[in-house]
Amino acid sequence: MTRDEAFLQFLLRMGDNTLILGHRVSEWCGHAPVLEEDIALANTALDLIGQTQMWLGLAGEVQGEGKSADDLAFLRDVWDFRNVLLVEVPNGDFGRTLMRQFLFDAWHSIMLGRLMTSSDDRVAAIAAKASKEVAYHLERSGDTVVGLGDGTEESHRRMQEALDYLWPYVGEMFASDEVDAEMAAAGIAPDPASLREEYDALVGRVLRKATLTIPDSRFAHKGGRNGRMHTEHLGHLLTQMQWLQRAYPGATW
Amino acid sequence: MKNEWPLWEIFIRGQHGMSHRHVGSLHAPDAEMAIKNARDVYTRRNEGVSIWVVEARHIAASSPSDKGPLYEPSESKVYRHPTFFDIPDEVGAM
């Protein structure tokens, strides 16, 4: 694998994470339990989609086939996506959506912090811009996880169920392969495994405050970030997200 | 409704040197979330540099039916109004 091939894979992983999570979060638009949360979730979704444009825009550049961020978002099929499985699982209830958001935001903020010192200026610039948005995402999702976890009996139960359901999807964010080794050697991105300690400390602190118990198992679903095996949910998501470009190729407004 | 979050009144300062202005209200479980919600609801188009939130029940308001005794006496006292000075442009917003 050449350095550019690895770089392209890395950029697709970053951009597909934000694209798919941004789409999932946008599904709440008009459906959130209260107006204020509805707007806040839509803002988060828009931030993530804005970041997608930067990551996939750079991916298209590195790929060198003249593809735009839109081409990559709307004209690839399931097996071409490189997002972690965590971001494609269905929203579930509001609690599960916010738990997923928190588990991702915590990783995202640590990752972007490291990427700000990337040897590639373009990566460092995207990370610097995105990290401010993500710092707020993390503050908001973290506070909500604490509020609901340490809330009523029902909200606590739902948050513990959400954590139990989502925890097996956490490990994939810290898996390393030859793409990561190449990126780390080039100083472009950190080895994901090196983020785990900081992540466990951050997540542990918040979940303790939320009176929630982290499951004992370290079993991790995987197959998203290398595209080997996505969940059955991603295809359904893409049929919604991509249908307009598929039905009316090249449509613009 | 008993389960509803309390109502908060939101004040935002648009730029340094200006005072906070009332921009609207929203629901939130506590003051911290009220500030976060205000950030998302009222500053997403770059409107503010500072946010104040006040729980609506803490605001005491004058009664509309008192407006005669409260405000009308000053209508006939034009000499109280500082309208007889020329204010230099350099002073800026007053």
From TrEMBL, chain A:
<protein>
    <submittedName>
        <fullName>Phenylacetate-CoA oxygenase subunit PaaC</fullName>
    </submittedName>
</protein>
<dbReference type="InterPro" id="IPR012347">
    <property type="entry name" value="Ferritin-like"/>
</dbReference>
<dbReference type="InterPro" id="IPR011882">
    <property type="entry name" value="PaaC"/>
</dbReference>
<dbReference type="InterPro" id="IPR052703">
    <property type="entry name" value="Aromatic_CoA_ox/epox"/>
</dbReference>
<dbReference type="InterPro" id="IPR009078">
    <property type="entry name" value="Ferritin-like_SF"/>
</dbReference>
<dbReference type="Pfam" id="PF05138">
    <property type="entry name" value="PaaA_PaaC"/>
</dbReference>
<dbReference type="InterPro" id="IPR007814">
    <property type="entry name" value="PaaA_PaaC"/>
</dbReference>
Automatic annotation (TrEMBL), chain B:
<protein>
    <submittedName>
        <fullName>1,2-phenylacetyl-CoA epoxidase subunit B</fullName>
        <ecNumber>1.14.13.149</ecNumber>
    </submittedName>
</protein>
<dbReference type="Pfam" id="PF06243">
    <property type="entry name" value="PaaB"/>
</dbReference>
<dbReference type="InterPro" id="IPR009359">
    <property type="entry name" value="PaaB"/>
</dbReference>
<dbReference type="GO" id="GO:0097266">
    <property type="term" value="F:phenylacetyl-CoA 1,2-epoxidase activity"/>
</dbReference>
<keyword id="KW-0560">Oxidoreductase</keyword>
<dbReference type="InterPro" id="IPR038693">
    <property type="entry name" value="PaaB_sf"/>
</dbReference>
